[in-house]
Amino acid sequence: METTNFKIVSSKSQIDWTGRKVTGAHNGTIGIKEGHFILNDGKINGGNIVINTALIKILDVTDPDTNAQFAGHLASDDFFSIEKFPTAAFDILFVKEISNGKYYLEGNLTIKDITHLTGFETEVESTNNALSLTGKLIIDRTQYDIKFRSGNFFKDLGDTLIYNDFDLDFIITAEVAKN
Asked: How many structural domains does the chain have?
């Protein structure tokens, strides 16, 4: 069995986030700090992704002052508590090949030091030296103590309600790790 380790190239990878509320949605990007994937005989067998929560950006709010205020709120304890928890991580525990190049990855997602088992589908393209994963992960923020304006915890929010689920659409590039 041939095992190959692929290291994530942060500068060639992207995670887009979308959060929805009654009156619309917000979107942006978040940075990848590091990570890797392990392939056995050309098939994903494990790995992890470490997110740099301090690199969250809001793309749909163009006014600089409003954007800075919103970014500060996302960094606060109402949301990601970035000062206390500068990273989030996904550690792959189980991999199932659905079809050629399509996988179901299941693992531990840790946000704010709270860990839950989650899974998602991803499409994988690979060459001898590079690997590309694309997919979407939908996260219930309330499982990670992000309860701000959640209808599960607060009543009579009206049009200020923020939906619990947020999406992470990702394109991750990894290259063979050099020893």
From this structure: 1
Show the domain range for 81.
Answer: 3-176
For 90-126, write each residue's pLDDT tens digit: 999 999 999 988 999 999 999 889 999 999 999 998 8
CA 13 to each of CA 78, 128, 138: distance values in angstroms, whole numbers, following the listed order: 27, 18, 18
Three-state DSSP state, 76 = coil
Phi and psi at 161, nearest 5°, equal -60, 140
| Cβ count within 10 A of residue 94 | 11
State the pTM of this model: 0.87
Neighbours of 128 (CB within 10 A): 7
Coarse DSSP helix, strand, coil percentages of the chain, rounded to the nearest 5 percent: 10, 60, 25
CATH of the domain at 91: 2.40.128.110
